[in-house]
Amino acid sequence: MVRRNRVVKSARRPEVRLPELVAWPDGELAPDGDYDGLEFRDADFAGQDGGGARFMDCALTGCALDETQLHHARVLDSVLTGIRGVGTDLAEASLRDVEVVDARLGGVQLHGAVLERVLIRGGKIDYLNLRKARLKDVVFEGCVLVEPDFGGARLERVEFVDCVLKGADLTAATLVDVDLRRAAELDITRGVDRLSGAVISHAQLLDLAPVLAAEMGVRVAEAD
């Protein structure tokens, strides 16, 4: 049964107002470190361990995060601009009231993470691992997501605006008020049966028809 005229609740976007920041004096990240009101500009954190660290009212601009260990980290009321890296470990991290702008990331680990009031705008993220993560009031805007993995995740009030999703995996995911209508490209390879709780456009429905038919075991053939 197709539900019509259902109101989709909009995501609440973060409203980050950074105070006057103090420049990071260089050095390495420390496990369980406490970083408050700092500006990290063009810092190279490749291979460093900041697991369990807390970033509050911070700006990270142009920082390298290759293989950086940030599992269980907390990023609060902060703006991350132009960050880049492969294999960044943010497993079970918490991001709240955060803006991520023009990121270039590959294989970033966010499984089991909690994202609340997060805006990801621009940039490209390859192989984003959000398995069993919880996303609430999250907006993906104008970005490219290549093979994002939402397996077992819960998405509530999540919007995809002018962004490209290639090879998305929704296996065992739970979707509540997820708005996909404004996605520039929507390609779901697994878990299309989990779209209950999402809203898509008529054009997207036609594009997804072959995947839906395969999921339901329906064979499509012309009459003899």
- Evaluate the radius of gyration: 19 Å
Which runs of at least 5 residues are low in confidence (pLDDT < 50)?
none
Number of helices: 1
Mean pLDDT: 93
Q: Please provide the count of β strands.
A: 16
Give the N-terminus to C-terminus distance in angstroms: 30 Å
Helix-strand string: EEEEEEEEEEEEEEEEH
Largest sheet: 16 strands, parallel
Task: Give an account of the 3D structure.
The protein is mostly beta strands. Helices cover 7% and strands 41% of the residues. The protein contains one helix and 16 strands. The chain has one helix at 202-216; strands at 22-23, 34-36, 38-41, 54-56, 59-61, 74-81, 84-86, 94-106, 114-126, 134-141, 144-146, 154-161, 164-169, 174-179, 185-190, 198-199. It has a 16-stranded parallel sheet that branches. The mean pLDDT is 93.
Features of the shown structure:
224 residues; mainly beta; 16-stranded parallel sheet
What's a quick, concise take on this entry?
It comes from Streptomyces yaanensis. The protein has 224 residues and is mainly beta.
